[in-house]
Write a structure and sequence with these properties.
Layout lengths: L4 E4 L14 H9 L2 E4 L2 H13 L7 E4 L6 H6 L10 E4 L12 H9 L4 E3 L5 H9 L6 E6 L4 H18 L2 E5 L5 H11 L5 E6 L7 E6 H7 L8 E6 L1
Parallel strand pairs: 1-4, 1-5, 2-3, 2-4, 6-7
Antiparallel strand pairs: 7-10, 8-9, 8-10
Helix pairs in contact: 1-2, 6-7
């Protein structure tokens, strides 16, 4: 008999867990004693706050990030033996969405292990909701190329796709490259294209603004190293 895989969302920032996570999820966390996590330090802090305070050393914590090899992920099948259930944690937000935990979810499906998703914050969906852009037709592009020339070409390509399909394009960037990304967007895209910048979602200092490229050039916003979602509609 196999246990279940519980997909456990985590907060996007600091604050009271009860403000962003439902009571049923918090109760489930306290029942579990085994977790596959993206980063051990962050996971320990979250689990302590979520109800395992003083018990962290008794929990089974197993890393799964971009450096985890396929053999290690395959070995995590043993965690589900004898009806033992496991929680999957992302660094922030929803597990398995723009997150390496998707590999464990896929493994569970291949081995008929039940996958149970929980409700929680998604920076992508929160940004789309608040953008005023097309929520009927959209695409998540993940990370664009890191090199400026390649990134500008990728931006032109997704702008062209957005114009043809009236499709909102959603993408993210490593925080220390946020301002370089914004600079390339302003340089590569049409003045009429709409751009939403959603920063530090669910946090006290969150900012969500939608402007045309021409208007953004006048505003000259500095994002800094804060978590950010970009949405574009031509």
């Amino acid at each position: 008999m196999k246990g279940k895989l519980y997909l456990i969302p985590t907060p996007l920032g600091e604050g009271e867990l009860s403000e962003v996570l439902p009571a049923g999820l918090l109760e489930c966390i306290t029942r579990l004693d085994c977790f596959v996590v993206e980063e051990l330090r962050t996971a320990r802090r979250f689990l302590s706050k979520a109800g395992h305070r003083g018990q962290i050393e008794q929990l089974g914590l197993y890393e799964l990030n971009e450096h985890t090899d396929a053999a290690t992920i395959e070995s995590y099948l043993s965690l589900f033996e004898n009806g033992h259930s496991v929680g999957l944690l992302s660094e922030a937000g929803l597990p398995a969405v723009a997150d390496p935990g998707a590999a464990l979810v896929a493994l569970c499906h291949r081995h008929q292990i039940e996958v149970v998703p929980f409700t929680g914050p998604s920076s992508l969906m929160l940004a789309l909701m608040a953008s005023g852009l097309n929520g009927q037709c959209f695409a998540f592009k993940g990370y664009l190329p890191a090199k400026s020339d390649e990134r500008k070409q990728a931006l032109k390509n997704i702008e062209k796709r957005s114009l043809a399909a009236k499709e909102t394009q959603i993408f993210i960037e490593t925080p220390y490259r946020n301002d370089a990304m914004l600079s390339d967007i302003l340089g590569a895209c049409s003045p009429r294209t709409q751009l939403c910048i959603a920063v530090n979602l669910t946090c006290p200092d969150q900012q969500i603004k939608t402007r045309t490229i021409a208007e953004w050039k006048q505003e000259k916003m500095e994002i800094g190293k804060r978590p950010c979602v970009f949405l574009l509609l031509a």
